[in-house]
Amino acid sequence: MLVHEGHAQTMRFFTRANSDSYDLILRLATFGQDIAWKHEIIRAVTNRSQILELACGTGILSSMLAERGKSVTGIDLTFEYLLTLKRKLKAPIAQGTAEVLPYRDESFDAMVSSYLAKYVDVQKVVDECWRVLRPGGIVVFHDFTYPRGLILNLWNVYFELLRLAGRFVIPWKVVFGQLDDVIKKSDWVNQTISALKNDKFQNVNCRCYTAGTSAMVSAQKP
Ligand SMILES: C[S@@+](CC[C@H](N)C(=O)[O-])C[C@H]1O[C@@H](n2cnc3c(N)ncnc32)[C@H](O)[C@@H]1O
Q1: For 5-146+187-220, CATH number?
Q2: How far, in Å, from the CA of 156 to the mean position of ligand 1?
Q3: How many CB atoms are closer than 10 A to CB 121?
Q4: Kind and range of the H or E run holding 202
């Protein structure tokens, strides 16, 4: 059931053709920064044990959390990405949207997501986080952001090169060609902060990383 334009974008971007190369492409395309950003997410949920990863994809973050002894559950819209996850991690997973979660109220100590916020109706996701989190639980959203200032010139050149690379790396042609536009049009940071405050989350916090090219928004359910 499609409920948001981001779902159509997701289906164009994440396919059977690119599920196996995703981990490598992400590492190369972010110059290794993805792993550093994921460490920040892990740091934010240090004292939590039962964690739901929204948009778990191929399971990079879920695997890192499981290696640290966390009990991880994953949900993602893309079936082929979940198949890739299943090959590396034994964890309960579900195919579905983060806007309507198939979990009971107050089931998790923490909910994390990386590269989801720009594709969803953030208010719906935050409402679901409130419902599914236990009191005292933490929610963390991480995604790319559109940088300001001098770095923007470098960012634009980088995406021109990526667009060029897409001519040769066919499974990634659509992503390499359109991701900059999706990031540019997304106001996920402000929307997420507003949604968290609407739902009475506390300790709403936002941190920017790598010259403003990504950000993490976190909060706690009282
Ligand atoms: C760039 S990948 C990120 C995967 C993983 N979080 C990571 O950090 O590597 C984006 C993922 O978001 C998933 N996704 C997009 N919209 C979604 C939604 N509404 N509900 C659940 N997953 C979604 C896609 O299927 C895709 O696997």
Answers
A1: 3.40.50.150
A2: 24
A3: 18
A4: strand 202-209
CA distance 77 to 8: 11
Each residue's pLDDT tens digit, 64-74? 999 999 999 99
Distance of CA 199 to the CA centre of its chain: 20
Q: What are the φ and ψ backbone dihedral angles of 110, each rounded to 5 degrees?
A: -155, 150
pLDDT tens digit sequence for 91-137: 999 999 999 999 999 999 999 999 999 999 999 999 999 999 999 99
Torsion of CA 13, 14, 18, 23, to 10 degrees: 110
Neighbour count for residue 171 (Cβ, 10 Å)? 17
Decide: 41 in ligand 1 pocket, CB within 6 A: no
Where would I find the H helices in the chain? Answer: 5-13, 16-19, 22-29, 33-44, 60-67, 79-88, 122-132, 151-165, 173-185, 188-198
Domain coordinates of the chain in residue numbers?
5-146+187-220
Task: Assess whether the C-beta atom of 188 lies below 6 angstroms from ligand 1.
Answer: no
